[in-house]
Design goal:
This protein has helices at 11-18, 29-41, 61-76; strands spanning 7-10, 89-92. The protein is mainly alpha-helical. α2 runs parallel beside α3 (61-76). The radius of gyration is 13 Å and the shape is globular.
Length: 107
Amino acid sequence: MSIVLLRIMLALLATSVITPKSTDEQTPDDELQAAMDWACGNGADCSKIQMNQPCYYPNTTRDHASYAFNSYFQKFKNKGGSCYFKGAAVITELDPSHNPCRYEFIP
């Protein structure tokens, strides 16, 4: 897999674009929020998902967590960091960026 194509995002976000899952298989918002709080408190740059910033919309826990998980993984992937987040995230080749929000990629 090309490193240039490596992106992180929530499992739900990736699968909802590729093949939608039933709600029974999605990570609950409270679990996503807890994992996002951890990522933001441990090195992820979560400034762009704050109000009036480019990645605030869509204003959902799922979208904000996707951005936070990617930020954390990009910062720590070369230092042994993972994107597991208690099963709430996966590595994917799908780029979740959308205008005006651009997800960071660090080779």
